[in-house]
Amino acid sequence: MLKKKIVKNSKKLKTILIGFGDFASGYPKDRKMQKYFKHCSHAEVLSSHENFQWEAVVDPNYTRRNLAKKKWKVPIVVDSVKNLPNNYEVDVAIISSPPDTRLKILESIKVNKGLLLEKPVAENFKDALKIKKICEKKRLKTQINFFRRINKTNITFKTKLLNKIIGDMQCGFCVYGKGLKNNAIHYIDLARMIFGEVIYLRSITKYPKRKKISLFDNFSFILGFKNKKEISFSYINYNFYREIYFDIWGSKGRLEFLLEGIKIRHSPLKKHRAVSNYKELSLDKGKYINPYLGNEYYEIYTNLANCINKKEKLVSDLENAITNEYIIDRIIYSSKNNNKLVNM
């Protein structure tokens, strides 16, 4: 696996965390999650990362603010950005508040060096472009938390193993739940990371009667890549069970990301057991891979600090995130327009 170099800063980056919900605050604790992910909240990273000085939390919820004060010992805790101390400014802002709040927050806070934004960037593509302009105007190094881009196993597949073990993609499938904007966007990003840019797409879900699409609305759709190779996305109801499953059929083998990436299964080729002069995938004897997991949140922060200190490029920059947002926007557009094919 690739080793990540951590560049130590002589001075910690003054940091504010805006939005202190369950996944930001580290509460409630999920012991099952902690078995696989050493750092699974912004609070856990900020309280331990050598490059960041956690100075403030902003959240409208009293219980969350109280948690920030008592458990995490954060010096400045307020209910809104406007109630921060006069002329308060920081080096870095972490924004995990709801997507529809991000634009106003960025217009009002004083941040000098960098941002880490949760996905999606904004409530809609139009606002995402406005956020991009603000970040460019303020010259902020802006990282978006598509943490699979810094996962060592994914990087190794992309750079060293993909052609060797699966060859050229023939087709692919993804099963997800709990929202196109909330969950599918992660695997849209992973597909782009591994296979390159989307050339065309088509929704296969009828547009709902209500006009506004929420964070948790699901769509089935097809993404087309080079040479007209396609990955189909379909959704499931998490009330029955939870899964995000990514399945790639290549010219040399098959690769499956199971249990949201906790397990990976590779099915290589062998001689067909029932038909002469053909090969088959060894589906009943696939090889399981235990991927590197656990430090992605921490390493996303490390990469941001190193970028601010001009040591390396961002692994998940705003330009990449805007491309993901545009794909989401075009999927919804396709659905609105009788599931028409959309060229990118």
Distance between the termini: 34 Å
- Helicity range: 25-40%
The CATH architecture classification of the largest domain is 2-Layer Sandwich
CATH topology of the largest domain: Dihydrodipicolinate Reductase, domain 2
Helix and strand pattern: EHHHEHEEHEHEHEHEEEEEEEEHHE
| Shape, per Cα inertia axes | globular
CATH classification, class level of the largest domain = Alpha Beta
| Oligomeric state as shown | single chain
Strand content: 15-25%
State the CATH superfamily name of the largest domain.
Answer: Dihydrodipicolinate Reductase, domain 2
Total domain modules: 2
Number of strands: 16
Sheet/helix structural class = alpha/beta
List the keywords:
344 residues, alpha/beta, Rossmann fold, Dihydrodipicolinate Reductase, domain 2, 2 domains, ten-stranded mixed sheet, six-stranded parallel sheet, 10 helices, 16 strands, globular, disordered N terminus
